[in-house]
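pinging the channel bc i need a second pair of eyes. not urgent but kinda urgent?? the chain im working w is below, pasted from the shared doc
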Amino acid sequence: MQRTAFLFPGQGSQRVGMGRDLFEGSQDVRDLYERASEAVGLDIAAVSFEGPEDKLTRTDNAQPALLVAGVAAMTELVRRGVEPWAVAGHSLGEYSALVAAGSIDFEDGVRAVRERGRLMYEAGLKRPGTMAAIIGLDEDAVGAIVKRASAAGVVQTANLNAPGQVVISGEVDAVKEAMDLAGSGGARRVIGLKVSGAFHSELVDEARAGMEAFLRDVEIREPRALFVSNVTGGAVADPEEIRKNLVAQIVSPVRWVDDVRALVRRSASLFLEVGPGNVLRGLLRRIEPEAASLPAGRLEDIERAAAEIASR
C-alpha cells in the first residue's frame, strides 16, 4: 500500500508569487483564496502574488498566506487522486496539516493562523528577541551552549530541524553569546535569522496565552490521516490533546527530527512537500537519506507527483 505523507512548510518558505499558477489554473483554488480573504479581511491572493515582499513577510500576513498556499496544493493533489496517509507540518505548517486531515475547518484554520501571526508579532514587539541556526553541532552540544549562554539572558532551543541543524531563540544578547560559543565550539556555520521575534521561546509566552483563548472556540476533530505533533514528536489523534499541543507549540521546540522518524517507523513510503519551497525535503535528506520525496507546491510538480504515484 502506498503510504504518502504530506509535509507542510512553515514560516520562511513564503515567496511573492507562491500559489499563482494554482490560482490561475483552478476554480477550486480561486474559491479557497476568496473564502480565506473573507474569513480574515485580507486579500490573500494580492499579498501572496504581488507582495511586496516586506508585506508578505510580516508574520500576521505570512501565516495565512502560507496556509492557503499549502491547502491549495493539497486540494490539487486530492483532485488528482493523491490522498494523504499521514500529515505533518513545521511549526505554522501544523495548521495546514490539520486542515488537510479534516481536523480543522479551512476558514477556522485561516482565522487561527492570522490570529497566531498577530499575537506572535505583538509579542515580539513587547519582548524583542531573535533566532539563529547552528549548523554542525548536535542537540546535546547546543543544549550545553544554551545553558552557558543563559547567564546573558533568555535563550532556548527552538527547532530541532535535522541532525546537526538546531535553531535557538531568545533575547538578543543571549543569542549572540550562544552564537559566539557555538562558533568557537566547533560549529560549521552559525547564521542569524531575520525574524520579528524570538519564536518558540518564553519571550512569546503572551502569544501562547492569547492562542489558548482563541482555540477554545475552534472545533477540532480527530484527524482522518495520521498526524504527528511538533510538541511530542509522535502521533496524536485526540482532539483535546491536539488543541493543547497547538497552544504549547508557541513556546516549545519544534521536534521535526522526531516527527520525520515517527513517520518512517510507521513505513511512510513517499513524502510530498505540499507548499512553496524545498526546505522540508532538504531536512528530510539529512534526517532519513533513503526516504523518497517529491516537491508538490507548483502545478507542474503536482502533476508530476500524481503521475508518478499513479504509475507505482
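so The CA atoms of residues 222 and 238 lie 6 Å apart. and The chain is about 50% helix and 15% strand. — does that match what u expected or am i reading it wrong
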